[in-house]
Amino acid sequence: MDVGIHRSVRQIFPPGHLRELIADVGSVAVVPDDRPVEDCDALVTFAYEPAFLDADLDWIHSVQAGVDRFPFEDLSDRGIRLTNSTGIHGDAVGETVFGYMTSFARRLHVYRSNQERREWGPPAWDEAFTLAGQSVTVVGLGTLGRGVASRADCLGMHVTGVRRTPTPVDHVERVYTPTDLTEAVADARFVVLTVPLTEETRKLVGEFELDAMRSDAYLINVARGAVVDQAALLDALESGGLAGAALDVFEDEPLPADSPLWEMDDVVVTPHVAAATRDYADRIAALVRENCRRLEAGRSLANEVV
Ligand code: NAD
């Protein structure tokens, strides 16, 4: 099989590193910067480019779990299969969210900012708190959501979840459906967004949902920027309707330099890196290897989206 590795994967890891890891699957080449994608059966990519539709591909693998940038209908019309990288980010994103929650509760982000000014600044007596005993609502209980829920449960937090089918999930005390989202978030000290961006989840959290949240609550978004109405979030943060937010994803990325979010004391901004880990390429290699096997055997693919 001829596998192309699109140069855009370098946003996450060096393309040549992945080529070495999957050298056993067939002929594997990194598509050079100045050349179009051609002469390959499969393409492993971060970016989507319209030219992919005319490249005579059988299969495209997205190195991200989120595939909202791909045109599903056009791919299906051309008979190009699309797979994503869900299933591999539960540990990395779970630990990142654990870090955000710990930072807010133990005020670590405040001390780190103070350190830049050589300022010795203890918190007010009632500012710091422990995660044990706090409540967290996780919206979306797939790979990411379960990675968050299991860690929160271990910390002694009360975990509520939102999923389309309200059946029980390990580490989650109570499960709501999306129609009861405002009820699900109303008592939570932390609300964590771990859903894919779809027509149903675009602006899932807007003025109404933010109003329903506690004024001492923190919103954590590791899903996609457009899942939150960012203007409504800014209003809530500026008016004291929310205590703070940890945001890894934004409506516009990179977050524009003039965004007020950069300067808010209780907002932690991270540059879409919640899943970053040095093992990333190894996990992608395992997925690609498995699907090469399946493609050659004429079987359905793992993580098939289209
Ligand atoms: P996943 O497919 O394992 O889980 C997504 C879950 O959300 C599924 O269980 C699905 O049923 C559920 N869901 C879909 N629509 C819903 C709705 N309206 N209400 C409640 N639940 C709903 O995917 P994942 O690996 O957990 O990733 C989820 C998303 O997170 C990705 O699509 C991607 O956009 C984003 N992501 C971000 C990063 C990052 O670096 N910040 C990393 C990985 C994934």
TrEMBL record:
InterPro entries: D-isomer_2_OHA_DH_cat_dom (IPR006139), D-isomer_DH_CS (IPR029753), D-isomer_DH_NAD-bd (IPR006140), Dhydh_Halo (IPR054891), NAD(P)-bd_dom_sf (IPR036291). Residues 99-274 form the D-isomer specific 2-hydroxyacid dehydrogenase NAD-binding domain. Residues 37-305 form the D-isomer specific 2-hydroxyacid dehydrogenase catalytic domain. Gene3D superfamilies: NAD(P)-binding Rossmann-like Domain. One of its GO terms (molecular function) is oxidoreductase activity, acting on the CH-OH group of donors, NAD or NADP as acceptor. Pfam families: 2-Hacid_dh, 2-Hacid_dh_C. Keywords: NAD, Oxidoreductase. Belongs to the D-isomer specific 2-hydroxyacid dehydrogenase family. This is D-2-hydroxyacid dehydrogenase (NADP+). It comes from Halomicrobium zhouii.
